[in-house]
Amino acid sequence: PHPGNILVSPGGGKNGFSLVLLDHGNCKTLDEGFRRDFCRLWEALILLDSKKIQELGKQFGVGKYAKFFPVIFTGRTSESKSRLGKGMSVQERQILKQELKLLKLEDVTTFMGSLPPDFLTVLRTDGLIRSITLKLGAPQRVRLLAYAKSAVYGLCYNPVSEPDFVDKSIISRSLMLMSYLRLRLVLELVELFQGMKKVKHTIYTLYGRIIKGITKNVKVSSVTGIVL
Predict the structure, then answer these.
(1) Which residues does the UniProt record annotate as the domain ABC1 atypical kinase-like (predicted)?
(2) In Å, how far are 57, 77, 91 from 69, measured between CA atoms?
(3) Torsion-angle region of residue 137: left (phi > 0), alpha (psi -120 to 50) or beta?
(4) Counts of helices then strands in the chain (DSSP H, E)
(5) Is 3 exposed, middle or buried (0-12, 13-18, 19+ CB in 10 A)?
(6) Which of 4, 87, 130, 156 is the most buried (most CB within 10 A)?
(7) Number of domains comprising the chain
(8) Are 92 and 74 in contact (CB under 8 A)?
(9) ∠ CA(42), CA(44), CA(48), 5° rounding?
(10) Three-class SS of residue 80?
(11) How much is the pTM?
């Protein structure tokens, strides 16, 4: 609170007045390219697809520091064998601690300075949501799966060419739901075969093909102009 967002309203309260706190918050329209890349990042974070995380890290301009994205957003490393929402094991914490010791102030400055403005805005919002859910006692896995669902839906939705079409069509919503259910299935398989890298790679490849097929179907529906 500061003098610019506190008002005194007559009436109410024991003293004949009440305090009113105005807090509108920050509003910003995200760049469409960034929005879609951020959705892809969350898919990769949920599945711990380190290759995809590194690729997106280059697009965001952070390069090698992208390996810290899983720690920042999900509380585990890209090599973690823990289930989503369970954090890191003692051994994983020790390894991460050693890696962080090698970082210099210059590395932190470079990382933060390389992030796009939109990324910093979303990062701040994520911190607020994380704090609120923690105080409400919500399991971390619930929050992360909610992000995953929004990411999958966000990749199926194209506000530029189809502002109302996809959002309102029953079939398109069904495709979005199918995408999320497939993500959940892949997540369970990845966690089941956590220590088998070849199997995980195969699962990632199949999931990528499935998502491309679903996205293509949504775009085709939009081009035909058929009201679904």
Answers:
(1) 1-55
(2) 9, 8, 19
(3) left
(4) 10, 2
(5) exposed
(6) 156
(7) 1
(8) no
(9) 120
(10) coil
(11) 0.69
User: Is residue 1 in a domain?
Assistant: no
Q: What is the pLDDT of residues 68-103, one digit of tens each?
A: 999 999 998 888 888 888 888 899 999 999 999 999
Whether the Cβ atoms of residue 153 and residue 176 lie closer than 8 Å to each other: yes
Which single residue is written with the structure tokens 């009113």? Answer: 20
For tokens 């069509």, the residue is 169
pLDDT at 211: 56
Which residue ranges in the chain fall short of pLDDT 70? Answer: 1-3, 158-172, 190, 193-228
Residue-range definition of the domain harbouring residue 149: 6-224
CA dihedral (101, 64, 55, 143) in degrees, to 10, reads 30
- The tokens describing 93, both together, are 């914490």
Closest of 185, 225, 224, 212 to residue 46, by C-alpha: 185
Q: How far is CA 94 from the centre of its chain?
A: 26
Residue 78 lies in a domain: yes
For tokens 């289930």, the residue is: 83
- Rounded CA separation 63/71 (Å): 16
Cβ atoms of residues 173 and 156 within 8 Å: no
Is 27 within the bounds of a domain? yes
